[in-house]
UniProtKB/TrEMBL annotation:
Keywords annotated in UniProt: ATP-binding, Cytoplasm, Nucleotide-binding, Nucleotidyltransferase, Transferase, tRNA processing
Lineage: Bacteria, Pseudomonadati, Pseudomonadota, Alphaproteobacteria, Rhodobacterales
Positions that bind L-threonine: T32, H64, R119, A139, S179
Family annotation (SUPFAM superfamilies): YrdC/RibB
Name of protein: Threonylcarbamoyl-AMP synthase
Gene Ontology biological process terms in this record: regulation of translational fidelity; tRNA processing
Limits of the YrdC-like domain: 10-196
Length: 316
């Protein structure tokens, strides 16, 4: 299949919406990473998303909608969910909520669960595409399963060209790590750290978050131990490069080949994370290794360390 490259204008959006309406797949930019979008109501489109990514079918997908009113057609909101949606949407927060009986989503999207992960993205092109298409879009990150997430249209093409109908090119993603996923079955639980810092969620909720991550029994596949993996092996918390290593710094790191942020800024580091992983992989070459300087485990640093830990984990 030829993968069309669509420009971020009215023509590109029209074409993207037409492909989605015909059951095809379009990768599109969000503020976090590029998503691989398909009609969340269509079994055929959703099955093709799993096939294009090589993703296990027990891993449910996030449903993207333009606003809270549309989200309410698919999920039930209690007072906590309403507060969080009003505070953080549009933006990089995904809420796992009870699925409505009359939602009309493909059961493949939710992997047969009674809950649905739903988010309202902030990126103007994602929003324009949701409006032009006029329905819910299932969209996992637009990369082959287990590999580094895409923050540029070129990254999507490198992983999925020939397997999807089109890529809507919106340039680099501003946030750079995936959305924070919050479970609201019982006490609010952090299922995946991401683009909204857990400190901000705790401030809005007025209570600490429970942690829901369990790599043995993942409720979110971002929770699988090995994920985001480049070709080269990775060493973490490296304060200097050893022989054969490409060292990636954070803040002042004399001798680093690359840096996540020269000034030690966590927001900048998150935005650079996946692109830097790809560059480090290229620099390291076939027998090289990658070493990362320590990143503080606060704010967006938690999402960065979560991704780096999984990138460094033993591969299946
Ligand atoms: O920023 C993002 O969230 C990006 C952009 C494209 O929106 N999307 C993304 O999707 O990261 P994906 O498929 O790579 O990650 C979706 C996560 C998975 O970890 C999945 O297990 C979890 O959402 N998830 C989906 N439905 C769920 C549910 N009902 N309960 C628990 N986790 C769920
Ligand atoms: Mg992903």
């Amino acid at each position: 299949m030829h993968t069309e490259h669509l420009s971020p204008d009215a023509n590109g959006l029209d074409r993207a919406a037409a492909i989605l309406s015909a059951g095809g797949l379009v990768a599109f930019p969000t503020e976090t990473v590029y998503g691989l979008g398909g009609d969340a109501r269509s079994d055929h489109a959703v099955a093709r998303i799993f096939d294009a990514k090589g993703r296990p079918r027990f891993n449910p997908l996030i449903v993207h909608v333009p606003d809270i009113a549309s989200a309410s057609r698919y999920a039930t909101f209690d007072a906590t969910a309403r507060l969080l949606a009003a505070t953080f949407w549009p933006g990089p927060l995904t809420l796992v909520l009870p699925l409505r009986d009359d939602a009309g989503l493909s059961p493949l999207v939710t992997a047969g669960l009674s809950t649905v992960a739903i988010r309202v993205p902030a990126h103007p092109l994602a929003r324009a595409l949701l409006t032009a298409f006029g329905g819910p879009l299932a969209a996992p990150s637009a990369n082959p399963s287990g590999k580094v997430s895409p923050t540029r249209a070129e990254h999507v093409a490198a992983g999925l060209a020939g397997r999807i109908e089109a890529i809507l090119d919106g340039g680099p993603c501003a946030v750079g790590v995936e959305s924070t996923i919050l479970g609201l079955q019982g006490a609010p639980a952090l299922l995946r750290p991401g683009g909204i810092a857990s400190e901000a969620l705790e401030a809005a909720l007025g209570q600490p978050l429970a942690t829901g991550g369990d790599s043995a029994k993942p409720s979110a596949p971002g929770q699988l131990a090995s994920h985001y993996a480049p070709e080269a092996p990775i060493r973490l918390n490296a304060t200097a490069a050893s022989a054969g290593e490409t060292w990636v710094g954070f803040g002042p790191c004399a001798g680093a080949a690359l840096t996540l942020s020269p000034s030690g800024d966590l927001i900048e580091a998150a935005a650079n994370l996946f692109e830097t992983l790809r560059r480090a992989d290229t620099l390291a070459g076939p027998n090289g290794k990658i070493a990362f300087a320590p990143v503080p485990d606060i704010g967006l640093g938690r999402a960065i360390n979560d991704r780096l830990t999984r990138a460094a984990a033993p591969r299946p």
